[in-house]
Amino acid sequence: MIAGAPAPRVIVADDDADIRALVAISVTKAGLVLVDKFPDGSSAWEGVQGSAPDLAVLDVSMPGLTGLQICRLIRADARLSGMRIILLSAAVDDASRQAGFVGGAVEYLPKPFSPRDLIERLSVLSDRVGA
Predict the structure, then answer these.
(1) Tens digit of pLDDT per residue, the chain (131 long)?
(2) Side-chain half-sphere of 10: how many Cα atoms within 13 Å?
(3) Distance, CA of 107 to CA of 85 (rounded, Å)
(4) CA nearest 81: which of 121, 54, 111, 107?
(5) Three-state SS letters, the chain
(6) Disulfide-capable partner of 118 in 14, 25, 26, 123 (CB 3.0 to 4.6 Å)?
(7) First-to-last C-alpha distance (Å) of the chain
(8) In 3D, which of 32, 38, 22 has the Cα closest to residue 124?
(9) Distance between CA atoms of residues 13 and 60, nearest Å
(10) What is the CATH number of domain 9-128?
């Protein structure tokens, strides 16, 4: 993060409450501002549109819209297209990872993930916000 700049704002979406809580803690430990947490893709997309955060951590497989669908919607919206996106997924095969990157994610973390790894990735991405 740039000294004196406000901390990047983050939304989290995962249909698993425990993972949502773990990601939210990781966001805070990375020194970022947690805007909101969502249990499904449809409410997450509404939250993204309403708050236009700097970063999003999205589960690939959620009810409503998937994280990958939200990723594509973000990339198609000029107002949101610069948002950094981390996708979380139990699918660890190369085709799934590639689909995440093609969809617009800048990071793709397999579940289960290390909270330390997530904090590190959030920190690195927060340094790139606005860059």
Answers:
(1) 455 678 999 999 999 999 999 999 999 999 999 999 999 999 999 999 999 999 999 999 999 999 999 999 999 999 998 999 999 999 989 999 999 999 999 999 999 999 999 999 999 988 866 54
(2) 30
(3) 7
(4) 54
(5) CCCCCCCCEEEEECCCHHHHHHHHHHHHHCCCEEEEEECCHHHHHHHHHHHCCCEEEEECCCCCCCHHHHHHHHHHCCCCCCCEEEEEECCCCHHHHHHHHHHCCCEEEECCCCHHHHHHHHHHHHHHCCC
(6) 26
(7) 10
(8) 32
(9) 9
(10) 3.40.50.2300
Owner of token pair 């589960």: 59
- What would the two tokens of residue 14 be? 């995962």
